Amino acid sequence: MTSLALSAPAKLNLHLRVRGRRDDGFHELETLMVTLPGLADTLEFFPSENFGFTCDDPSIPSDASNLVVRAALAYQAASGQGIRHRLHLGKVIPHGAGLGGGSSDAAATLRGLDRLSPAPLGPAKLWELAAALGSDIPFFLTGGAMICRGRGEILEPAENVPSIPVVLLKPAFGVATPDAYRRWRDSKEVPGILYTAQEAHGLTWFNDLERPVFEKHRFLAEMKQWLLARQETEAALMSGSGATVFAVLRDGSDAAPLIAAARRELDPGLWSWSGLTA
Ligand code: C5P
């Protein structure tokens, strides 16, 4: 019998400014993140004598390198209580996609364990645990639309962000986030690719990580330009450090023909999703 099942949604970065490299090796950011409630992993909590973790995707490690396991161990250490639940993760969000899947799973772990605890740690302590585990994880404790600064862990609710129709496309390969940041400063623009800010739905869309990622993965740059040339598309951008590139749809445009054409003209193996931002 399940004690609790939580949705762990993906995120999109609607803008991402890299302000510079910090002394601790991380990069100072300003990014607008929104959750995608319709694209989510599921984390189930089952009563158990001991902690355990399983995942329906065999390619996901289930040892201490998994962020769910690391979040559970961090929670256990902070609370001083043994974890009396077994966790099962149903994976939907692709990996290496810039959609925050692993971070969202970790945040759901902390939220769930605290909800099930007889002595909850509360939001401030959860934020601290989340920030120590990864830059995006505090955002997923609340989700919605947030301006994230610092490494990404300093949050401010973003006002007046509408719900926006988007189409997400991702090739089979993923992008390694540390590599994208490492190459940010010295990378060059690929000629013929649009990097400057775009206006759509009353927002400004740009991503400073496109420069290092597109330089290494030209196909992602091509996908962006291909999307920009489609009449359904109002703006197109990479999310986070990739490899997802997404289209902001014009009002009244259909996602299905756009996705079908992308598979036909770009790559038959593309992963896709369409729906609304939070
Ligand atoms: O914090 P997280 O584990 O998600 O970050 C993964 C990697 O991305 C970091 O080890 C770092 O190399 C890079 N990163 C960064 N600046 C940030 C966030 C991440 O340099 N603000």
The portion of residues assigned to helices is 25-40%
| Binned strand content | 25-35%
Query: Which blocks of ≥5 consecutive residues have pLDDT under 50?
Result: none
| Principal-axis shape | globular
Structural category: alpha+beta
Number of strands: 12
Encode the helix/strand succession as letters: EEEHEHHHEEEHEEHHEEHE
Give a verbal description of the structure:
This protein is an alpha+beta fold and 278 residues long. It is built from eight helices and twelve strands. The strands form two sheets. Strands 1, 2, 3, 4, 5, 6, 8 and 9 form an eight-stranded mixed β-sheet that branches. Bound molecules: cytidine-5'-monophosphate. Cytidine-5'-monophosphate binds next to strand 2 and helix 5.
Protein topology:
Elements: E1 4-21, E2 27-47, E3 52-55, H1 67-79, E4 85-90, H2 101-116, H3 123-133, H4 137-142, E5 145-150, E6 154-157, E7 165-170, H5 177-182, E8 198-200, E9 203-207, H6 210-216, H7 218-228, E10 233-238, E11 245-249, H8 255-265, E12 271-276
Parallel strand pairs: 1-9, 3-4
Antiparallel strand pairs: 1-2, 2-4, 2-5, 5-6, 7-11, 7-12, 8-9, 10-11
Helix pairs in contact: 1-2, 1-3, 2-3, 6-7
Bound molecules: cytidine-5'-monophosphate.
Structure characteristics:
four-stranded antiparallel beta sheet, 32% strand, single chain, alpha+beta, eight-stranded mixed beta sheet, binds cytidine-5'-monophosphate, 8 helices, 278 residues
